[in-house]
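Box S1 | Example of a co-folding query
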Amino acid sequence: MSGEMKYRLRVDALTLPHMSRYATAIEVSKDISDNRGYFHFAGLHGAPGRWCWHHQFSQQSNLSGRVFLPWHRAYLHRLEQSLQDIDFECAIPWWDWTLSEGIPEAFSSNDFEGRNNPLQKTRIQLFPPQVPNAVDQETFRNPDPNLPVFSFPAADVNEDGRATLAEVTDYLVNEVTRFEVFNDLLETIHDFIHVYVGGSMADVTFAAFDPIFYSHHCMIDRIWAQWQAVHGIDNYPNGLKSIVLEPFGLTVEEVLNFETLGYEYADSVSDIDIGGSPIEG
Ligand SMILES: [Cu+2]
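Box S1 (continued) | Returned holo structure for copper (II) ion
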């Protein structure tokens, strides 16, 4: 454990220190070809590793259970550790899709400090025997004009017949007391966001090569962290706590208290020292 707590902040303009540090670390990571680099981590989720847990299953396990949230927490943690080896101060930023602003500029812009924006896309190159057929393509997105809304009266605070992501998320965190119900609703919302982004993000085989994947999952992890703050950090099915989250070597139990993994969620940069650079704007 590193000892010092890192704060994960909201996705914002690339000119802000927490974003430029993150983009720079991703850029460097993409040039590391061994198991400390971006392509190693991107390849764990879908092709070629196929370790991910969704809807109670992983292609690499004969167990079934709600392991979606802890598996992705361990995943982000290991990626974040590798990025902190590049820049000790950096942390994964969360994409707050409840703000209804679409794909953030930090991920859609071509330019980062006069270079290609490393958060915009990634060139995927996979060759046999890693995959049956060679893949050489760039990640792409095909976002819907509108973020999803839900027909969900219990969450629909203003009763206009359309529960927004903000309303559904609030409802989930504050009103849903059973982990199983919380998990399944959150996983469904998660699916909708993958489909909303479209393109590579809508394909589990390649989704994790798109850098926006990690900020989407960071948002999912943050909502779980908020739920844990309300409903209990250890509020998780006991029978699943000893499952090992492969290939990360952590058990479910070991990731429940995320602060022991060295990070917390903060809403604003204003009260946090994120490593020297003055906050602008
Ligand atoms: Cu996902």
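Residues 276-281 have pLDDT under 50 and may be disordered. The radius of gyration is 18 Å.
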